[in-house]
Amino acid sequence: MKQGSGFPWRLRAVYSRDKKWSNVVAGGACVVLGAALVGCGAPAQAAAKATHSPVTITLGGWTSSPVEAALMAKELTYFEKAYPWIHVNYRPISGNYEAVLKTRFVAGDAPDVIYVNNGGQSSSFMKNGDLLPLNKYIKASHFPLQDFFPGALNLFRYHGSVYGIPKDQSPLSLFYNPAMFRQAGIKSAPATWAQFAADAHRLTNTKLHRYGLINSAQEPRWAEFLYEAGGSVMNPAMTQMTLNTKAALQGFSFFVNLYRNGSAALPGTVGASWGGQAFGMQRAGMVLSGNWLVPFLEQTYPKTPFAVVPMPKGPKNAETLTFPVAYGITRDSTQPQASWDLIRYLTSRQGMTKWMNLGLALPARKSLLALPYYKQHPVLKGLLTDLPRSIPWTFPAGFSQLSSTTMTNETTLAIMGRETPAKALANMQQGGMAILHSGS
Amino acid sequence: MVGARNSFSYRLVRVLYLLILTLGALAMLIPFAWSLSTSLKPLSESMAYPPVWWPHPFDWSNFVAIWTMVPLARWFLNSAIVAVSVTVGNLIIDSLAGYALARIPFRGRSILHLGIVSMLMIPFQSVMLPVYILLRWLGLLDNYGGMIVPGLVSAMGVFLMRQAFLTIPQELEDAAMIDGAGRLRMFWQISLPMVTPNLMTLALMIFMGSWNNFLLPLLVANRSHLWTVPLGIVMFQQEYFVNWPYLMAASVLATLPIAFLFLVFQRFFVRGVATTGLK
Amino acid sequence: MAGIEGAGSSSLPAVAKSNAFRRRARRELGVGYMFTLPSVLLLFLFTLGPALYSLYLSFFSWSLLNHMHFVGWKNFEQLFQMPLFWISVRNSVVFALVVVPTQTVIALGLAAILNQNLPARGFFRLAFFFPAVSSSAVISIIFMWIYNKFGLLNGFLSVFGIVGPDWLGNPQFALSSIMVLNIWTTSGYFMIVFLAGLQAIPAELYEASAIDGASRWKSFTHITVPLLSPSTFFIVVMGIVGTLQMFDQSFIMSQGTGGPLNSTTTIVLLIYQFIFSYGQVGYGAAATVLLFILILLATLATNWWFKRKLDYL
Asked: Given CB 3.0 to 4.6 Å as the disulfide criterion, which of A220, A366, B7, C190 pairs with C107?
C-alpha cells in the first residue's frame, strides 16, 4: 500500500535512528545481563547461537495489503538477525481469517504465533483453550506489562492468565470532510450529539447523493452511543445483557433516528460497500471509522480531504470503542519459547514502534502515544485523543451469530422503520440472554 | 413450414424472431461489454452516474497496473497447472470407468453405475470440511495437490463417457475379441479412438469447470501465490474494497482464455451440452 | 450389451466352452474393477466418504476448536426450531421454484425460435451460450458492479425515469437479483440442449400435422413439447439440483453474510456459515443431511411427474 512519496525515506530515517539507540541500550543490557533476552547485537549472538538449536516457527495473521505483508516480512528478517537460531515462516491468511484459522486448528496445522482478534474471537479461543497461557514466559523474561493499555490487555486475559500481548489497536473516531463542512457553512467539527445530528442534517444533499453520515448497521458502529449515554451492551463481567436500560435505548435511538430522518444512510444507498468507501467517494460528510481508514483514503481516494476528531460527547461521557489485536501462541505449538521470543520482540517498545511507523494502526502501549511519528502526522490527533478513553469491543464465546448477523438485522429493521428501536433492542437482549443461559 | 398465405405476416414474424434473438444476445453480452468498458476507465470516471459507455479516453493503464498490483501472472499459471492436470486425469480415469460401465460385463456393474450417478447429487459445499480434513491428512493442503486430486474424477464425466462408449458398435469389439485382444488393448486401440470427439468435449468441459472453480481453491490455497484466477479476483475484491476498474480489468483477463477456447472449439462445447440432454 | 461370448469357440466341446466362459467372466470382473478402481476410489474418498462423515457429524456438537461430543438428534431438533434455518429453506425453495421454470421456458422459447431458418444462427448460439462458459465467481463480481446503486442497471432504468434501488442491499430485491443472474447464466446453456432435442424431431411430423390443418401453436404443444420430454426432464432435474446447491453467487454477492436481513441465505450458504463462521459444525452437518433429502425428494417428484406425463402421452 503506497503511503505517499516520502514514506520509504521516513521509515528508513526513523528506523536507523531507532536501531542506533536500541543498539546502545541492548549492548549495555548485554554487558550487564549477559544473556540474549532483549535482541542483542553481535557479541552475544555467537554465544546465543551455540546454546540454542535451530528452530522454525510459523507466524499467521491477516494482512490488509501486499505492502503490509512485505513490511512484516522485513520485520521478521530483523528479528531473525537478533535471534539467529529462530527461523520464522510468515504465512498470512487471506480471506476469512477466522474460518481459515479454525480449519487449520482442526487439521492440526495451526501457526505457532497468531493474531488474536477482538469482537469475540479472543473469548472463543481462550475459552476453548486454543491459546497457551503466557504467564510463565512473561515472568521468566521479566516482561513488564504496565505500559500496555489495561483495557486492551484485559481483552486477552481469562481466569487470571494472560493469553495475548496486544500488538496494536484503533479507536472509533469521527472522520469528516473539511471541504464539505466549509461549503455547508459549518465552522468546526461537532463535539456533542446535538451538533453531530445538526451537522449531519445540514450536510445531507440527496440531489448530490450525499449524506451527512454513512455507516453500516453493524453493532461496533453504534455501541459507543450506548456507552456515551451511560449504558452498555453487556455488563463488565459479560454475564448479562444490558440492552434493556433507558440509557441503552437513548444511545441506540440516537443512532437509528439519524437514519430515519434522512441525515444518515447505509453504504449501499450510495453504491458503496462500506462507510469508508462512501466517504472516499465524497458521498458522506462524516463517517465513524478508525485508523484503518487513513491508509485506505491516502491510497484509493487521495483527492478526498479528511480530518479526524474524537467521537462527539454524549449525555454522560465521551467513551468510544477500540479494537485491539494481540499476538498469541497456539496451544499445539511445538516451540513455545521461540514463539514467545517473537512476540516479545514484536511487542517490545522498539518492535511496536517500528510497526506504528507504518501508520497502519495505533499503539497498544501508553508510552508510544508520544511517538515522533504522530507529531509528523497531526491528522491522527483525534484518534490518539480517543484512545485512552475507549472501551475494547468484545463479546463472550458463542456470540458470533448474534453479534454479526442478528444485531445487524435488528438494527436494519429499526432503521427501515419496520421495528421500533425498543423492539429491536428487546430482540437483541432476548437473543443474547438465551445464549448466556444455554451456557454454550 | 408455414403456408405462404400471407408473405407479409411471415416476414413480420421472422423480423420479430430476429428482434427477440438480438435482444437476448445483447442481454447476454452486455455485462461482459460493460466490464470491458469499466476496465478502460480510471476510478473517478467509473463512478460517473448515469453510466457512460464509451471511455474518454481509453485508459489501458488498469490492464498494465493489475499485473503488478496482484500476482496475476502467477494466478494464471496456477489455474493452468491445476486445470490441465485435472483435465488429463479426468480423460484417463473417466474414460476407463465409462468404458468398463458400458462395455465390460462384470458383476456389480449396475450398482456401481447407480452409485456413481447418485454422487451427482452431493454438493461439494456439504462435504467441504471432511474433504479439508482428508486433504490435510494426505498432506495435500496449501499446494497444487489439494486443488488437483479431488477433481481428478468427475461423476458427470464418467456418465458422459459411458454414454459415448454405448454408441460404439458392438461388432468392432467382438471382432477384436475374436482376435484375442485383451480389454486394455481393445480399449486403447479401438474404442477410445472412436470416441475422440467425446473426449474433446469432456476435456473442454472439465478444463472449463476446473478453471472456473472457486470453492475448492478457496479452501486449499491459503497463500496468495497459490490462488487460481477466480479465487484471486474475489480475494482481491474483499481486500481492496472494490476498486471497480481494477476488478473489471482482472475479470476481463480471467474470461479471455475461456472465451478463446470457446470460440475455437465451440463445436465441441455445443455438442457436449447437446448430447447430455439426449439420454 | 452383456453378450455371452461364444463366437470364437463354436468348435469346442460344451464343457470347455463353459469353462472358457467362466474364465472370461472372472477376467472381465478383474478388468472391470481395475478400470473403475481409480474413479471409485476417488469418488469414495472425496464425495461419498465425506458425505457419510457429514452424516456422522450431524449427531455431534463441535465448534472446530473444542472436542466433539455426541448429542444425538438434538442438532436436528434445534435446526427445526431455528428461524434462520427456515428462512434459508424458504429462500432456497423460492429460488428453485422461480428459476427452474423460468430458465426452462426461456431456453425452450429461444431454442424454438433459433430452430427456424434465420440468419446468423451461429452467432446467436455463441452469444447465448457464452455466460455459461465463464466463471461464476467472475460473473458475480461483474454483476455486483452492475447491480450497484449507481451501476449499469439503475443507469438504464433512469432513462425511463425510474430510480432503481440498491439491488443487493435491499432485502426485497436481493434474492431476485441473484435469481435473474442465475437465469441469465444458464438459459443459453439449456437452450443448446433443447436445440439438439428439437433437431432430433423428424420434420415429417410437422408436415403431417400441417396437412391436417393444425395451427403452429397446436403442433408446438402437441408434437414439440411431448417429444422434447427427455430434454425437458434433464433440464428440470439439472435445474433443481443446481439451484438448490447454489453457493458461489450468494456467497460472493453478499460477501459471505447472507444478504440484507438474511434474504439471500440459502441452505448451502447457511451450512458454510455454520461451519466456518459460527463454529457450529453439528448444525452444518445436520443441514447438509436435510438438504440432501430435499434434493432427493425434489428429483423423485420430478421423475414421477414426468413419467406420469409420458404415460399419458
From this structure: C190
